[in-house]
Amino acid sequence: MADVVLFHSAYGLRPAVHAAAERLRAAGHRVVVPDLYDGRTADTVEEGMEIKDEIGRDELLRRAIAATAPYSDAGLVYAGFSLGASLAQTLALGDVKARGLLLLHGTADIAEDASVDGLPVQLHVADPDPFEPHDWLTAWYLRIGRTGAEAEVFPYPGAGHLYTDPDLPDYDAQAAEATWRVALAFVDEVG
Q1: Around Cβ 133, how many Cβ atoms within 10 Å?
Q2: What would the 3-class secondary structure string for 102-125 be?
Q3: Cβ atoms of residues 86 and 60 within 8 Å
Q4: Whole-angstrom distance, CA of residue 53 vs CA of residue 48
Q5: CATH class of residue range 3-190
Q6: pLDDT tens sequence across 160-174
Q7: DSSP bridge pairs for 4
Q8: Residue 32 phi/psi, 5° resolution?
Q9: To 5 degrees, how large is the angle CA 99–CA 112–CA 75?
Q10: Cα 162 versus chain centre, distance
Q11: What is the value of pTM for the model shown?
Q12: pLDDT tens-digit readout, 108-162
């Protein structure tokens, strides 16, 4: 069993995030799903980016840290969707007790001095993805490796950016099911 914190995308805490948490709970994991937007959600990526920009990256990170603090002694698996994945990555790379990092649809820049010893990392991403272009992903993969993390990347050709959310136009049922099959096994293993 793993303790998982699952962060939402720029769309906010939508039904797909709750459904993902339920998948993880059904597999026997404890899951915390912070609402970093205080109940606000977006219908379009543009609206979501406006909310994100209004709150600000620093404040979102502060909220993410505050949401995980009560659970951090347990050795968390950090997970997130797109924007939430970037926050999860930032937190996991700064937490010596992190047990794993599950990135769905997103990554973040990595500080030069980031160092983790054997942190298991799994990234699931559309191929191609306008928010995660190939050259960025190649550089990210090299940088995450230099931190000491053990990263696996799973590309999904033809899928849209947020292909696991059935309420969005990007949804790809086959890619979503393949993602969850692999991701659940990952969380089971690191838990």
Answers
A1: 11
A2: EEECCCCCCCCCCCCCCCEEEEEE
A3: no
A4: 9
A5: alpha beta
A6: 999 999 999 999 999
A7: 31, 77
A8: -110, 135
A9: 15
A10: 11
A11: 0.97
A12: 999 888 999 899 999 999 999 999 999 999 999 999 999 999 999 999 999 999 9
